[in-house]
Amino acid sequence: MEAREARRRLKEAKRVAVLTGAGISAPSGIPTFRDAGGLWKDFRIEDYATPEAYRRDPLKVWEWYAWRYANAMQAQPNRAHRLLAELERQFTTPSPHVGDRLTPTAREGSGFLLVTQNVDGLHARAGSTHLVELHGSIGRARCEECGARFPLPDPGLFIPPPVCPKCGGRGRPDVVWFGELLPPGAFERAENAFAKAEVALVVGTSAEIEPAASLGRLASWAGAYLIEINPNQTPLSRLADCSLRMGAIEGLEALLSPTSLLDLE
Ligand code: APR
């Protein structure tokens, strides 16, 4: 059965790369973009998520991001975020001392990287540290004058636009808008991990937005075992070695939980 094989591969792999999208945060109450009820159903990208929109009406764009920021800060990481943080620790936490030596875990120091398209900060709050936020973070601003990045104040105290603590310039949302480049080095780091991965795990993304969507294809073409978790079919599904047509929590429980039912069958 595919899922059992996928679970075995994840257990044994020395290099794992994970890509997540808005679907992993849906159970935390954060809206996706293209699903029924998604953000782009109620808001036009051209009005809120392009440099032109911001130039045209910075305060309107800031009010929208301040609203999303407050939602993200009220939300809690869910079991799926936590399971991925636990998976990372299998690669990065030394096993207990044996005698007076640290016996490195079988996978310690191997390759694990979590790449997310999400800007909600929930992976970091769940404890993930080997993390690339490809599209930036809704909890940060970037100064339009000096380029400094700085955290936004508590949502209850935040009155946009934020003022740069370094130079007093106006801050813009530190997210990647349509038509903008990704943060320097972010995609190269992600590409490197997916090109070398033995297992690539893609969770909760419609796989429609490039260049993030290319990561799953890259891993598959490089010979990785590709796993997709999504209740719906995506352009990536035909390449997946294992496609779990279910939600992120259910799928990651099956693949990663120590009490997975897959071990019982
Ligand atoms: N578990 C897993 N997947 C889910 C769940 C869930 N509980 N609920 C929904 N999904 C899936 C949907 O089937 C859909 O394929 O999550 C996906 C969400 O797709 P999008 O809304 O397109 O979000 P995403 O793929 O992250 O969008 C990529 O587009 O608008 C830009 O910058 C924005 O980062 C975003 C990028």
TrEMBL record:
Binds 1 zinc ion per subunit. InterPro entries: DHS-like_NAD/FAD-binding_dom (IPR029035), NAD-dep_sirtuin_deacylases (IPR050134), Sirtuin (IPR003000), Sirtuin_cat_small_dom_sf (IPR026591), Sirtuin_class_III (IPR027546), Ssirtuin_cat_dom (IPR026590). It is found in: Cytoplasm. The active site is at residue 135. Pfam families: SIR2. Zn(2+) binds at residues 143, 146, 164, 167. NAD(+) binds at residues 21-40, 117-120, 204-206, 230-232, 248. GO terms for cellular component: cytoplasm. PANTHER family: NAD-DEPENDENT PROTEIN DEACYLASE (PTHR11085:SF4), NAD-DEPENDENT PROTEIN DEACYLASE SIRTUIN-5, MITOCHONDRIAL-RELATED (PTHR11085). 2 residues (Tyr-65 and Arg-68) present in a large hydrophobic pocket are probably involved in substrate specificity. They are important for desuccinylation activity, but dispensable for deacetylation activity. NAD-dependent lysine deacetylase and desuccinylase that specifically removes acetyl and succinyl groups on target proteins. Modulates the activities of several proteins which are inactive in their acylated form. This is NAD-dependent protein deacylase. It comes from Allomeiothermus silvanus (strain ATCC 700542 / DSM 9946 / NBRC 106475 / NCIMB 13440 / VI-R2) (Thermus silvanus). The lineage of its organism: Bacteria, Thermotogati, Deinococcota, Deinococci, Thermales.
